[in-house]
Amino acid sequence: MNVATPTTVELTSRFARELPELAAPWQAEPAPGARLLVLNEPLAAELGIDLGFLRSDDGVKLLTGNRLPAAAAPVAQAYAGHQFGTYSPRLGDGRALLLGELVDARGGLRDLHLKGSGPTPFARGGDGFAAVGPMLREYLISEAMHALGIPTTRSLAVVATGRMVRREMMLPGAVLARVASSHLRVGSFQYAAATGDVPLLRRLVAHAIERHYPDLTDAENPPLALLQAVIGAQASLIAQWMLVGFVHGVMNTDNMTISGETIDYGPCAFMDDFDPRAVYSSIDIGGRYAFGSQPLVAEWNLVRFAEALLPALDDDSDRAVALAQECLGGFRRQYSTAWSAGMVTKLGLREIRDDAVTSALIADLVDLLQANRVDYTSLFRRLSGAARDRSGSGEEIPPAFDSWMQRWTALAPDLDAMDAANPAYIPRNHLVEEALGAATEGDLEPFERLVGVVREPYASRPGLERYAQPAPEDFGRYRTFCGT
Ligand code: AMP
Ligand code: MG
């Protein structure tokens, strides 16, 4: 049988059609020397897109927005947002395009979106482009997050454009093809609310519910039901970040999704030594988005979301505020429940029912982590290792943990369950820098290898010891950059 290779993908333009007020029709810049750098084969399979096609000339042109299916209607999305607490009424996709939605192999609707595809009407003086290094970084870290089971946007491909982009120095340009269950953000609702067009806000609510929370379609008060759902999704997401030591770095309201997926891998990093004050972003001078502040910042962002929804929550503004406040009041409990449950799992204590004992054990562990500045990720693998090997041949736990260890091991933790819940491999900062440095010099091998390592985070493999180890002393203080 002769099966023809598909020559394109089917894209719908539901967002652009249903919410034209939030969509500026736009085209990608040509990519004169487009060259595929990485292609996410498992994701392409999930999306039901043919690999041969994606690797072909037409496929690479699709991945840079330069040859689209006839029906496609690419748009730059409008959104507002609080950036470091300051409101900007008009942000939007300054260097990105929504190509459209596609139906994945399981029937779900996913956005196909480009980042670095050229300046749009929202560029605000920016060049609209992106450099190879930061796009590979997003690819790597979003894959790691996905492998850790944390909701996230995904990266389908990074294509070098052949264009140089001006940063502190001239750098090779790239376009990232990003896949998300949608790109609706808190900032999308802030933008819609600011127009004063309440029917538009209601249409946005309906669109979000249909895409992310279809069970709520018949809710008595859809905006309230959506608020509740997003609070729940974000409480769960942030708890997962905190459990793996992920520092997002730029939790502006335009970078918080309605779906509960992690988005916008700019200055993010995984924490090395445990420190609630850990900040990696060079522009986060005040530490607003420090590791330990993330739950409170998420709550602050959700208050902004609720404010945007107010006109749709109830015609009576006092009643609308009361409804919103009641909902928001649930965030801390939902976050704490999710985080505590995650910690119980990380400590192999899932079967333990005594809440008071486990709560005290967890609180004391956090104090010990903080006082002793231990490498957060490896500690949990070292704990299970040390508990297996009481003779103490290898796993080093600081002596300060001795009495805590006794209390913990007395609860008979399930050590195998622990190893299935605590990653051995994360994209450690020094490894990320090493891989991106080589990639920038044209050697993608270390990058591909690191992607392969973090795609299977829980199974320790011989030969990969260096990927599980903390950064060498001389790596120094790590800094990341935004808007790259
Ligand atoms: P981010 O920090 O990536 O969430 O971006 C914040 C805003 O700046 C968004 O509106 C982006 O589209 C915009 N932006 C970031 N970098 C550029 C760039 N190089 N050119 C145009 N707009 C940009
Ligand atoms: Mg953003």
Could you say which small molecules are bound to this protein?
adenosine monophosphate, magnesium ion
Q: Return the string of H and E elements.
A: HEEHHHEEEEEHEEHHHEEHHHHHHHHHH
Runs in which pLDDT lies below 50 for 5 or more consecutive residues are: none
| Secondary structure: helix percent | 40-55%
Using the CA coordinates, give the radius of gyration: 23 Å
Q: Structural class of the helices, strands and pairings?
A: alpha+beta
Shape: globular
Overall mean pLDDT: 95
Distance between the termini: 48 Å
Q: Please, how many helices? A: 18
Report the β-strand fraction as a percent range. 5-15%
**Biggest sheet, strands in spatial order?**
2-8-9-7-6
Summarize the biggest pleated sheet: 5 strands, antiparallel
DSSP, total strands: 11
